[in-house]
Amino acid sequence: MAEDRSGAVDLETVRLLLDRLGVSVSDLVVNSAPRTVPTFDEYLDRIADAVSPGSRRAYASYWRRIREVWGHRRLDEPTASEIKQLAESAKRSAVVRSNSRGGRSAAEHMISALRCLYQHAVADGLLSEAANPAVRVSKPRRLASTRHALTDGQLTQVFALASTTGNDPELDTLLLRLHVETACRRGGALALRRIDLDVEQCLVRLREKGETVRWQPVSPSLMQHLLAHAEQRGAAAGTREQLLRYRNGRTITRRRYDYIWQRLGRHLSWVATQQISTHWLRHTTLTWVERNFSYAVARAFAGHTGRNDAGPTATYVRADVHEVAAAIAALTGEPHPLASAPRGASTAPHRGGLGVSPKEVS
Question: Which domain of life is it from (predicted)?
Answer without folding.
Answer: Bacteria
